[in-house]
Design brief:
The complex is a heterodimer of chains A (495) and B (1137). Chain A is mainly beta. In chain A, 8% of the residues lie in helices and 46% in strands. Chain A starts with a helix and ends with a strand. Chain B is α+β, with helices and mostly antiparallel strands and 1137 residues long. Chain B starts with 12 loop residues before the first strand and ends with a helix. The chains are: A mainly beta (495), B alpha+beta (1137).
Chain lengths: 495, 1137
């Protein structure tokens, strides 16, 4: 034993052979760095966004299904349905149309959607019934399905759903002054579904006993005639909640009187934080309004931003209590001049989001239908997929209504950067640019409208819109009393 | 009064010497008797059989003695009984063996003391024959079960420390003075007790009869112990061909004394305890291979039970002369079980081998070597002179005064005495037992990997057959875990449920034991105990238990031992074996083999342990570099690599099968987790990877483990650094895996945390060691404060586990998934069978799985309640990989017909697990472990999957409406276009079940109708269909399955064709395991001999100089026995060797 070593031990100095500081520093540094890295990574991990309720599966998909409800299946029904299948791929795609009637009857037919083409199918030719639910099982992807309904009060268009969901929300609707409201629920899944329907009205939440615990067997469809149970309410927001299973829900509104019309709307499976309306115009004598429904349990602060061609106007803000609907009559806003197009962005600034519809009514002297309601486009639709959207063309050989044709294509860039948009038509197995419509550069926050003359070149072909960035696209169709009465949002193509 | 009337003569004493063929020592015995200074002594020599007549020898040494020869040898007691009848007028008898030589005043003193103390029996101090300075007996003690215990230590030197007259329970035979009237009342000795234990019996009965039994140490007798030492063999009893061992005699006579001497009440209390102890002793003895002991204990009960009638008579005799009740008699008995105390004491102080009698005790070795045993020094700042402060607290008179020799109140150090440490260990064991109490009964719930075991024959069959039903079937060899389970199940006579519980519950104490062993060369027993308690106090093990993670438990048990082996492999101080202990096990190859075997056993159950081995090795190297002491580091890596190679060789068939899986081979280590549900950095640091450990207090142990880095010195600092680096490496890799940064290489996080837990526990232990040794070298300052704080928080850090013990299940659910799943309609044996597709987080699936994506795994089983058949998945899913693709399609919204896609795999149910266990409202809650977001929604959106209502939460079940049976037939074959493509509707419809039978079999028979038979098994080429004596060849269906076209109608058999390659390889593997086990556990001295020769040849030493080996031939034995000595060197020199 060395005396020096002993002395060092006594004096409390450790042997120089074993170093203390490096290991201390290394351990502490590793622990701290690990914590920081984990914190950073955790904070940047975002939950994947849910796919829009109507999205075409990519062309590489093994199969994809579309579900359409809300159509009536008899000639005298309020909303006879016509389906539009648009194929954005370069090969014909097989599909099976399975139609279920609310009476229980079911029939199916195989279809082939031509490459880069459109196919029209009328479910009521397969099976008759008061209300129909249609499932289109596509042998692949790249196909969108939308639906047009027509009846005594007018006609309307809406996308079909590419997915089922346990909950569906509808922001607008009315049972006042003889207006009719139908909520159609379709269960295309293999599991039984049990559904409750509730309605938010100015008088409060109404849950009719008849619409509680509706049992839908696999493939069954049922439609609730709301006006008989939720009577004389100027605004009715509907909630379809499946206790078990998953369903698809569409709402059909029938407006009667001097200003009449029909609207078909696909519900929203969840509240969203941002909604767009590419183009609204308040014509003289007409009226437009936004229905902002807060189905959540928390108060939502909502901001409505309106963009005129000349620039933005001061936004409107309002707090929407839980389970209530805020109606903003945009045509009544002094800051919005009449007969001027504008784009609208509705933003939920707090809480869990809202559901937004727009109701448009032309002057009573306008050609019918004068009234219509459309669901606003949720932000997810503008960003989903591969920057491609499809729009069915109602001007087919046997249109749902006489004279049905595209009227205007509304393109809104809600982002803060410019996007370049090309409009093409699917014709003869290929895609070609729409004549007279060059590549459009839409500055940030602005919108543009492709008017009817340019769309006249379209003929009966469906439209394809491509964009270098997020885009909200809507096709206005005639016959209608004014733009916005019959409108179909573009359906995104998945990547 | 006439003084002359008083009889002043001494009481007459008759010395009864019983002899048989006495040895040369007999003259000394007779001389000793002849030399007695007691006048009234008569000597009666009883010659009990034998061939030699010693009369002449007696006459020569003791002419006045009487000699009586008995024809047969009936034992010492019988001879004495014979002598009693021959003598009249004696006041005392001295019962003498013929190998006891008394000092001249011995008898005198004994008689005096008998009068003075009014004792019925008086015994002298017994010393060894050759060295009267060494004590043999100063009276004997006994516990309630009759176990006789020495009052002196083995080889204890007589320095007068026992020279006080006192009561004893047993007067040891050899030279015992007993009042003649007492002996007559007792009826002499028990004739059935031929040798060993007669003294216990007589002393006990004497006390029952109201007599005192005392020792008079002033009287000294040398005792040769000819019988006990084996100089004089015990003769076989009548009718027996073989003489019983001394141990057997001792045990049977001890039990006989118990059965005779207790009253009914105490007998009813004591006997069950004795039986329990005996059963435990037999189990332990069998476990360690001590068969003579097991036979002796079991034989004692058998022998006594065979004499029930005779015992009843003896009990009546004892009752007849009873004066004292048992409570009075038992005051002199030792408390508790003397034998159990001795066992644990030896286990704690002298090691496993000594405790189990494999090698002699330290004292015995010292005595054999004719040298004094080395003292075991701790160098404790607790001022302990020895390891046991109880000894230090004794004053000069042997009393515990609580004050030191200067009269100051002694500060009692915690856990420095054997007794206190034993108490702490017992408390920890009680906490474990209490915390696990609900797991002892019934079967374990189906949670995680706690699946029902196969029967032992089924386990063997599964291991030996070269086909597994996992996925859609594979010919990859099964994991050797089935072999290990088969062996253990066979040993347990097929009690597989018991085996499962033993494996699960034993892991926890084994791991703690391993931590204690790891620190053995580094720290005092107290520090080792605290480290082990700390290991038990970490929530890791209980999290694994609650989650049903078998792999995590195995890693928890194995990693401390692995780290211990790596430390020894490093050769770094103080783990370097002493020169004299170096054997083949100390060589690089020996270390590799030892660690390799350990690694192999762990890896077969938890493959990620192989990764943990390298984490430990690399952590040690990194730590060595950081502390500046990297010499020997390369050995750690080399041994880790070599050991992994050894493990690979031991598991060769399975390893080869795994490697053939290519890139997916890494999946055996574990599956990627979802970063959303994976444990965070803080969770990993405090081992909160399950329901346990949620308390913030679980941080405290981790913090306390940093203490040695602050105050440690020398080897303690160096090893604390290595352990810390090891922990950091493990934590970082676990974090990388949890966050998905390692891709498909995702070793189980639970396994990776085991090295970190070991390091934390070792750090706390080293902190205690530093407190004991290093802290005294510092001036008073923050270090003392930090030390105090660390000790307190370490103690508080144990509280969460103690609190968790109250639940009785460690958080393991009471109801597993078996209950909700058993309510699903099964296929039954009359149908063609089907599969279940399991989806969920890899941590909750009860079947061996493969990865779909991070946090989502999939697996199949042919039954709704899976068993061990599919517990370990082969590395490659084979054709079942298509299921993952199908699920990805559904997740991505690329199909709405998942049911159709998985129909060829015969998936009837899709079960998605969302929690560790079923969630039953109001009854049972279980932590949620959700699958990736969107999975359930996408499954619910499939138009051919119908959700099945379940009353319990935590799982979602879908039924496939377009399923195909496993074995099906229809008229049309599957179209050729289906190969490699998604199955079309027409390919999966129209099939009818055929060839019924139970699931997971390899042969099915039944009638088929003409057409096509489909078999959803892979590899299709190995399955053969025989119809009407014809063997049909299969054609591909769906690219991987088999279909048999143009099948004629009639009875058919579908069976798996077995090639002998895999069974042969597995058999060779078994042989290899047996050979290695034999080498390690059996005779291995030849290896040392061989290694010494090789070493000598290298060093040029003479060929015959093989050097000394340890008694068991193991280098580690000596190394482990003397670590404290080495540590003392380090402490006193302050040098780092």
């Amino acid at each position: 034993m060395s005396a020096d070593v002993t002395r060092r031990a006594v004096n409390g100095r450790h042997s120089p052979a074993v170093r203390r500081l490096p290991i201390l520093v290394a351990v502490v540094a590793a622990l701290v760095v690990g914590g920081i890295v984990d914190l950073v990574v955790s904070s940047t991990t975002a939950a994947p966004a849910a796919a829009p309720v109507a999205t075409a599966a990519p062309a590489s998909a093994q199969s994809s299904d579309w579900y359409c409800a809300g159509g009536s299946g008899t000639g005298a029904g309020p909303a006879t349905a016509t389906l539009f299948l648009v194929n954005a791929t370069d090969r014909p795609v097989g599909a099976t149309l399975i139609v279920s009637a609310s009476s229980g009857a079911t029939a199916s037919r195989t279809l082939t959607v031509p490459a880069f083409g459109q196919l029209t199918a009328v479910p009521s030719t397969l099976v008759q019934g008061p209300w129909l639910g249609s499932r289109i099982a596509v042998d692949g992807g790249g196909v969108t399905v939308s639906q047009a309904v027509h009846g005594p009060q007018g006609w309307s268009q809406a996308p079909c759903a590419s997915t089922t969901a346990p909950t569906w929300y509808f922001a607008s609707g009315s049972t006042a002054t003889g207006n009719l409201l139908f909520v159609s629920v379709y269960n295309p899944a293999a599991s039984m579904a049990v559904v409750d329907l509730t309605f938010d009205t100015p008088g409060g939440v109404v849950a009719p006993q008849q619409f509680q615990g509706l049992v839908l067997a696999p493939g069954a469809v049922t439609t609730a005639e709301v006006a008989s149970f939720v009577q004389n309410q100027p605004w009715v927001s509907a909630v379809v909640q499946a206790r078990a299973g998953q369903v698809v829900a569409d709402e059909v509104s029938e407006r009667v009187g001097t200003v009449s019309g029909l609207s078909l709307r696909l519900g929203s499976p969840s509240p969203e934080h941002q909604w767009y309306l590419a183009r609204t115009v308040d014509v003289t004598g007409g009226r437009s309004a936004l229905a902002v429904f807060n189905p959540t349990a928390t108060t939502e602060k909502v901001q409505v931003a309106i963009r005129l061609p000349s620039g933005p106007v001061a936004p409107v803000e309002h707090e929407v209590p839980p389970a209530t609907t805020w109606t903003l009559v945009t045509s009544g806003l002094i800051r919005v001049p009449p007969n001027v197009d504008y784009a609208t962005t509705v933003t939920a600034l707090s809480g869990q989001g809202v559901v937004v519809d727009r109701v448009a009514a032309a002057a009573a002297v306008a050609s019918p239908p004068q009234w219509g309601a459309v669901a606003a486009t949720p932000s997810g639709w503008t960003t989903a997929g591969a920057g491609r959207w499809l729009l069915a063309n109602p001007a087919v050989a046997t249109p749902p209504v006489a004279g049905a044709a595209p009227f205007a294509l509304d393109l809104y860039n809600p982002t803060r950067s410019q996007v370049t948009v090309t409009v093409g038509q699917l014709e003869g197995g290929s895609v070609r640019p729409l004549a007279g419509v060059p590549a459009l550069r839409i500055p940030a926050g602005l919108f543009t409208v492709v008017e009817a003359p340019a769309l006249a070149h379209l003929g009966a072909n469906p439209l394809e819109v491509t964009s270098t960035g997020p885009l909200s696209a809507t096709l206005d169709a005639t016959p209608a009393g004014m733009p916005g009465v019959v409108a179909l949002p573009a359906i995104p193509l998945g990547s | 009064m006439d003084d002359t009337a008083v009889d002043d003569r001494a009481p007459a004493v008759v010395a009864v010497v019983v002899t048989r063929d006495p040895g040369p020592w007999f003259e000394e015995v007779l001389a000793g008797l002849a030399a007695q200074d007691y006048a009234e002594l008569s000597v009666l020599v009883m010659v009990s059989g034998g061939e030699e007549d010693p009369t002449a020898r007696v006459a020569q040494a003791l002419p006045s003695a009487y000699v009586r020869r008995l024809e047969t040898d009936r034992g010492f007691g019988a001879a004495v009984d014979e002598a009693i009848g021959m003598v009249e007028g004696a006041s005392y008898f001295v019962l003498c063996h013929d190998d006891c030589a008394p000092d001249p005043d011995a008898l005198h003193i004994l008689v005096e003391e008998s009068f003075r103390s009014n004792a019925g029996m008086v015994c002298p101090k017994m010393v060894t024959w050759d060295d009267p300075q060494v004590l043999l007996h100063v009276g004997l003690s006994a516990d309630k079960s009759g176990a006789v215990v020495e009052r002196v230590g083995e080889g204890e030197i007589d320095a007068g420390q026992h020279d006080a007259v006192r009561d004893v329970f047993v007067a040891p035979g050899g030279f015992t003075l007993i009042r003649a009237d007492l002996l007559a009342e007792l009826g002499g000795f028990d004739s059935q007790v031929v040798a060993m234990g007669e003294d216990l019996d007589l002393s006990w009965r004497a006390q029952v009869a109201g007599a005192r039994v005392i020792v008079a140490p002033d009287a000294r007798v040398r005792h040769l112990e000819a019988v006990a030492s084996g100089l004089r063999p015990v003769a076989p009893a009548e009718g027996e061909s073989e003489a019983p061992t001394l141990q057997a005699l001792q045990r049977r006579h001890e039990l006989r004394a118990v059965l005779k001497c207790y009253g009914p009440f105490h007998l009813a209390r004591v006997l069950p305890q004795a039986a329990l102890l005996a059963a435990g002793e037999v189990v332990v003895a069998l476990a360690v291979g001590d068969r003579p002991r097991a036979r002796a204990v079991a034989g004692a009960w058998r022998w006594n039970l065979a004499r029930r009638k005779e015992l009843r008579l003896r009990r009546a005799e004892v009752k007849a002369h009873r004066v004292f009740d048992d409570a009075e008699v038992r005051r002199l008995q030792l408390r508790g079980s003397a034998r159990l105390n001795t066992y644990f004491s030896r286990l704690a102080h002298q090691g496993f081998d000594v405790a189990h009698g494999r090698i002699p005790t330290t004292a015995a070795v010292a005595a054999d070597d004719d040298g004094a045993p080395e003292p075991l020094l701790t160098g404790s700042v607790g001022l302990a002179f020895s390891e046991d402060t109880v000894f230090d607290e004794l004053d000069d008179l042997g009393h515990r005064s609580g004050r030191d020799r200067a009269g100051r109140r002694r500060r009692r150090a915690v856990l420095t005495s054997h007794r206190s440490r034993l108490l702490a260990a017992v408390v920890a064991a009680v906490v474990l037992v209490v915390g696990s109490r609900d797991l002892f009964g019934g079967s374990l719930p189906l949670v995680g990997q706690f699946v029902p075991m196969l029967s032992w024959t089924g386990t063997w069959h599964h291991f030996m057959t070269g086909w597994q039903p996992a996925g859609v079937g594979t010919t990859a060899p099964a994991t050797p875990a089935f072999g290990v389970l088969g062996i253990l199940g066979t040993v347990l006579l097929g009690a597989m449920g018991l085996l499962q519980k033993v494996l699960v519950l034993a892991c926890i104490p084994i791991g703690a034991w391993g931590v204690s062993r790891l620190l053995r060369p580094l720290a005092s027993p107290r520090a080792r105990l605290v480290a082990a308690l700390c290991y038990l106090g970490l929530p890791l093990a209980y999290d694994e238990l609650a989650q049903g993670r078998f792999d995590g438990l195995i890693a928890y048990a194995a990693v401390p031992w692995i780290v211990s082996r790596l430390a020894r492999a490093s050769g770094l101080p103080p783990f370097a074996p002493p020169e004299e202990a170096i054997g083949w096990r100390s060589t690089l190859w020996g270390q590799m083999l030892l660690l390799g075997v350990l690694e192999a056993v762990a890896v077969v159950f938890a493959p990620a342990v192989a990764v943990a081995v390298f984490v430990c090795a690399l952590g040690m190297v990194a730590g060595s570099l950081l502390v500046g002491e990297w010499r020997g580091s390369w050995r750690v890596v080399a041994v880790a690599g070599g050991a992994t190679g050894v493990a690979a060789v031991l598991c060769a068939p399975w390893v080869v099968g795994t490697l053939l899986a290519g890139r997916s081979a890494v999946s055996v280590f574990g599956l990627p987790l979802s970063s959303a549900t994976a444990p965070s950095w803080s969770d990993l640091l405090r081992f909160a990877v399950g329901p346990a450990g949620a308390s913030a207090l679980s941080w405290l142990l981790v913090v306390a483990s940093l203490l040695p880095l602050l105050i440690g010195r020398h080897a303690r600092l160096a090893w604390a650094g290595r352990f810390s680096a090891m922990a950091v490496c493990a934590w970082l890799l676990a974090l990388a895996v949890a966050r998905g940064w390692t891709g498909s290489f995702a070793p189980s996080v639970d396994v990776l945390l085991a090295p970190a837990a070991t390091a934390v526990a070792a750090g706390v232990g080293l902190g205690i060691a530093s407190f004991e040794v290093d802290l005294a070298g510092y001036r008073f300052g923050w270090r003392q404060v930090a030390t105090g704080l660390a000790l307190v928080i370490a103690l508080v850090g144990l509280l969460p586990v103690v609190a968790d013990a109250g639940g009785g299940r460690w958080g393991l659910a009471e109801t597993g998934f078996a209950q909700p799943l058993s309510s699903l309609p099964g296929e039954g044996q009359a149908t063609g069978g089907s599969r279940v597709l399991w989806l969920g987080d890899p941590r909750v699936l009860p079947v061996g799985a493969w990865s779909v994506s991070g946090g989502l795994a999939y697996a199949t089983s042919e039954v709704t309640t899976p068993d061990a058949t599919t517990l370990w998945a082969p590395a490659s899913p084979g054709p079942a990989a298509g299921l993952a693709s199908d699920v990805r399609l559904a997740q991505g919204g690329l199909t709405a017909s998942l049911g159709r896609l998985v129909a060829p795999e015969s998936v009837r149910y899709v079960v998605v697990l969302e929690a560790l266990a079923p969630q039953i409202p109001g009854v049972q809650t279980s932590p949620s472990v959700p699958p990736p977001p969107g999975l359930l929604t996408s499954l619910q959106q499939q138009t051919d999957l119908a959700q099945v209502p379940t009353s319990e939460g935590g799982l979602v079940v879908f039924e496939n409406t377009t399923r195909m049976p496993l074995r099906a037939e229809r008229s049309q074959p599957v179209s050729a276009a289906s190969a490699g493509a998604w199955p079309a509707n027409q390919d999966v419809t129209g099939w009818q079940p055929v060839l019924p039978g139970p699931p997971q079999k390899r042969s099915y028979s039944g009638n088929v109708t003409s057409g096509t038979v489909f078999a959803s098994y892979a590899p299709a080429g190995r399955w053969r269909l025989r119809v009407q004596g014809l063997t049909l060849a299969s054609t591909p269906a769906f690219g991987w399955a088999g279909q048999y076209t143009k099948v004629p109608a009639g009875p058919a058999t579908l069976s798996l064709g077995v090639t002998p390659l895999v069974p042969l390889a597995v058999a060779a593997e078994l042989v290899l395991w047996v050979a290695v086990a034999g080498t390690l556990l059996g005779r291995r001295r030849w290896l040392d001999w061989w290694w010494r020769r090789v070493a000598n040849r290298r060093t040029g030493r003479p060929a015959g100089d093989e050097g000394a080996t340890t008694p068991d031939g193991a280098g580690e034995g000596t190394n482990e026995a003397g670590p404290d000595h080495e540590r003392a060197d380090l402490d006193t020199t302050g040098a780092t060797p």
